[in-house]
Amino acid sequence: MAPPQKLFLAAIVSAVIVAATTGYGPNTAAEDIVHSSCLHASYPSLCVRTLSTYSGPTITNQRELAQAAVKISLSHARAAAKKLAAVRETVGKKRVKAAVVDCVEMIGDSVDELSRTLGVLKHLHVTGGSANEFRWQMSNAQTWASAALTDDDTCLDGFKGVEGKVKTEVKHWMTKVARVTSNALYMINQLDESRGKPHV
User: Fold this and answer.
1) Which of 42, 60, 74, 146 is the most buried (most CB within 10 A)?
2) 3-state secondary structure of 162
């Protein structure tokens, strides 16, 4: 019979090999949480694609997933805001310019509301607070995210009856923002008191 020390060493080596061959690890766990959570999102494929390539901290629970989704939405909204501001300075037609100006205001509001949403999620009282306090914070996050989504849609409504390159570009930018925001709102709605806890 092999000495206990050799058996112990062999067990360790076997465990390392199994871990390496199965790909088990933090990244795999994060990918699992992303894929399972995105399954019923408004735009599942976009949800998986954006969250799988998220460059922030490793996602380990639903609360972190919701934060990541809002950060992605905020990033897209800020990018769209810059593009819209540039278009506003170059567009000539009065009707189109009016739509762009309104859209710049809407996307600005959306950026503000998403920032507020993220602020709420970052300071979510998952320990030490009452259930009512948690629900109040969650209600605020849902309200701000919903308002951001409404602003995205309102921007596009302003281009009804307008045709041309500007409308096509704005529609492309804002549709992307609206979709990632819709997915972010879905992730927020999935949070409940138990899922918000760090151990989940």
Assistant:
1) 74
2) coil
Measured CA to CA, the distance from residue 199 to residue 61 in angstroms comes to 7
The CA distance from 80 to 87, in Å, is: 10
pTM (two decimals): 0.79
Q: Which residue has the tokens 């990918």?
A: 31
Helix, strand or coil, per DSSP, at residue 17:
helix
pLDDT tens digits for the chain (200 residues)?
A: 555 554 444 444 344 333 333 344 445 666 788 999 999 999 999 999 999 988 888 888 888 999 999 999 999 999 999 999 999 988 878 888 899 999 999 999 999 999 999 999 998 866 556 778 888 889 999 999 999 999 999 998 888 888 888 889 999 999 999 999 999 999 999 886 454 444 34
Ramachandran sector of residue 25 (left: φ over 0; alpha: ψ -120 to 50; beta: rest): left
Collect all residues with Cβ–Cβ distance below 8 Å to 11 and sequence separation of at least 6: none
In this structure, what are the phi and psi dihedrals at residue 194, rounded to the nearest 5 degrees? -75, -40
The structure tokens 């509001």 sit at 109
Distance of alpha carbon 107 from alpha carbon 21, whole angstroms? 47
